[in-house]
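ok so for the tutorial part 2 we go from a plain amino acid sequence to predicted structure tokens. step 1 is just haveing the sequence, like this:
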Amino acid sequence: MIDFLRFRKFFFIFSGILTGFGLISFILKGKDNFGIDFMGGTMLHLKFEKQLNEADINSIRKKIEASKIRASIQYFGGEKKELIVKAKGVQEDVSLKIREIIETIGDFEYSSEYIGPSVSRDLVSLAIKAVIIAIIAMLIYIAIRFEFRFGISAVIALIHDITFVLGIYSLTGCEFNVPTIAAFLTVVGYSINDTIVVFDRIRENLKLLRREDYYIIVNKSINQVLPRTIITSLTTLFVCSALLIFAGGEVSKFALVLVVGVIIGTYSSDCVASPILYEWHKRSQVKK
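step 2 — the prediction. this is what the tokens look like for a chain of 288 residues:
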């Protein structure tokens, strides 16, 4: 049996470093990576006469990057004849440059739309509210189903996970947009689910092993669900890694968040949330 709680101080220090890294990385690099969903810009809808392939998309992406325009490209519809290009900048200037680049691929029809700062601010506000509401809802659910200290421990681990994933994502230079928020909310759900599985086993063992010390119960519970945690996480990682490597475009960015989120979420369930729960119990017993 692995004695997880024995290394809890190391885990706390290590997790503190990860959280600090995530915050610093996001503060220094994150704002530069906000897409037009959050900062405003130009969106082009392009409809080609021919079906596009990955070589065409990669060619467009490289030429746009060479022109120093920050833009995201994704398919629209199922026939691979339509593209959505989102770029920062004034509508006419950016639209003209992108159209000149894409004309080398083939004939197309287009429409352009400018997303103003007020719309972007609304999206930022809604995105923040979505994450906060999700965290509060989970705190209430866990507090009702288990105990309040279980809920706080889970939320601390969750904030740790989100902060670290934010930091890694910021470092990659990938664009923050609406699909990114969906990916982060997916990580929130996955991470909290993993933590609940561990907490559920702790609650069961607290009833079954009443004479055992709390330290032993928490350790035993983590080890009992560890095989399930590893198998589930590896299965999810295989799928997400395949999307990250082979999908490309927005799907690849979505998969990046999931890959990092699954790894850090698996770690925090066993090495952050459960040790925090034990420390809370230990300190409450000392006060008594």
